[in-house]
Amino acid sequence: MKLRRKLFASKDPYDCGKTQLFFDACKENYDYLITHCDDYKKIATGLGIKSSGDIKRVEDLPVIPTMLMKQHDFKSGRYMIMATSSGTSGKMSHVRFEFGALWAALKMSIKVTRYHGILSMRPCRYIVMGYKPHRSNKTAVAKTAYLTTFLAPAISRRFILKHTKDGYQPDFDSIVEALKKYEKGKAPVRFMGFPSYTFFLFKILEERGLAFNLPKGSKIMLGGGWKQFYREAADKETFYKLAKKTLGVEEENIVEFYGAVEHPILYTACPAHHFHVPVYSNIVIRDPDTLEPLELGQTGLVNLISPLCRATPILSIMTDDLGVLHDGSTCPCGVKSPYLEIIGRVAPDDIKTCAAGAADILKGVKV
Q1: 317: domain CATH number?
Q2: Does a structural domain hold residue 271?
Q3: Cα separations in angstroms, 130 against 46, 119, 224, 348
Q4: Which domain covers residue 224, as residue numbers?
Q5: Is the dihedral of CA 6, 50, 351, 94 positive or negative?
């Protein structure tokens, strides 16, 4: 996987001149998968792709929908660790990572977080608005939230969701008490985790008439989406106003992340709150009916592509997100790569992917 190593060694995480290298790394990944995963080979063959010579552009790569990954456990080689999706729909994707993928992901994370000013040597206190680590929890969102607490030295870590005999339960009162203590200190406070629980904390503080002025350098970092609380999702303006009102954190210190266990690439919002596509990935927006690639500015299904991993065939993944890809040159932050705007999600019954008919392709494969 020498092309993957070269790609993930890119110094500038938003280098727009690595298009050919990215494409070649994807074909390198495809050549491995096609010889190490029979299920992937069946899908590729069913789609009329018999070799990497049939792939003329990234849009031609065999696409696997996340819905199918939740139904079937794909394997394509030895691995070191495994992560699962949250399973809010009742079923989970299983994604395995070999050493090369983990090393590439580490280099990516360092470069992206350094670029956005998140990587720091200044000690801080973490409040994780997500799961406290537990041996029963193998979800990627729990692992990612915990790993994020190493982006700056941790003085302490507190978690909103604690494991009990009845499963995970939120403990807002302990967070409120911690804030009373942290406000008096000098160390910045970093929130990390679900925007839903972070927003619920804002509302609780507002209802109780509490307002804190956290130390300078404090940040709110959001990831994992609203999940089952999508009906309660707040618009960004409301979220930013409450963050300022209840914690004293300004908008410029609120950073949002986008990603998926099936596509473990770090998308970090720029100062204009746009998810620019890093050099390690590519995004194709597809027409929901024809699955043909759409032009910039058009809404469709989000197809995520990256040659990061080979232990699981996640080279090209079709999500159930609806999104728009915009011209990066229109963003005031200065990054020229296209940026993704997530519009929402489509109902499972409405999703048609270019792996439609995968049930037929996978006949004989146990799901």
Answers
A1: 2.30.38.10
A2: no
A3: 40, 20, 9, 26
A4: 117-259
A5: negative
